[in-house]
Amino acid sequence: MDSYPLLNLFWTMLWFFLWIMWLFLLFKVVADIFRSDDLGGWGKAGWLIVSLLLPYLGVLVYVIVRGKSMGERDIKEARQREAAFKAYVREAAGTSDASGPKKGGHVDDLAKLAELKDRGAITDEEYQRAKTKLLV
Q1: How confident is the model at residue 126 (pLDDT cuts 50, 70, 90)?
Q2: 33 with 51: CB under 8 angstroms?
Q3: By 3-state DSSP, what share of the chain in percent is helix, strand and coil, each rounded to 5?
Q4: Of all residues in the chain, what percent carry a pLDDT higher than 90?
Q5: What 8-state DSSP symbol labels residue 39?
Q6: Residue 4: what pLDDT?
Q7: pTM as predicted
Q8: 35, 72 Cβ separation under 8 angstroms
């Protein structure tokens, strides 16, 4: 290890880190190129060719030119994923909010039927028919 000074090791690590960072940025740029709705087929092909044939410069130019819209697409996708997750949780939990129909509210409906039966508003026969209708 005496033939490789410590300063050279630090420089090697720095360049390796920058190369890995560039790879992550390249994958992000390529994914953004394919995700972009405002680019046509030729535009996507052009940016892809520039990013792959002129790797460092192409990625840098893409981030400079389309960086703002790249961030907006990331935010939009994150909001869509969050909304889908919340909808899934609401559906799985059987709850609802004001914006959508109630799902899985059979327990509440059965409780209301039992309350109506207890107050004498409906007969036992009506209660059984309504209960069967709810559970089917």
Answers
A1: confident
A2: yes
A3: 80, 0, 20
A4: 41
A5: S
A6: 79
A7: 0.55
A8: no
Q: In 3D, which of 113, 91, 112, 115 has the Cα closest to residue 103?
A: 91
Q: What angle do CA 39, 41, 46 make, to 5 degrees?
A: 80
Residue with tokens 């972009």: 36
**Residues across the chain:** 136
CA pair distance 114, 70, nearest whole angstrom: 55
Neighbouring CB atoms inside 10 A of 36's CB total 16
pLDDT of residue 33: 92
100 has pLDDT over 60:
no
Contact call for residues 58 and 25 (beta carbons, < 8 A): no
Burial 66-85 (b: 16+ CB within 10 A, else e): beeebeebeeeeeeeeeeee
Confidence band (pLDDT; 50, 70, 90) for 7? confident
Radius of gyration of the chain (CA): 30
Please state, in angstroms and rounded to a whole number, the distance separating the CA atoms of residues 116 and 56: 73
Of 56, 75, 52, 53, the closest CA to residue 64 belongs to: 56
Written as six digits, the tokens of 50 are 């520039």
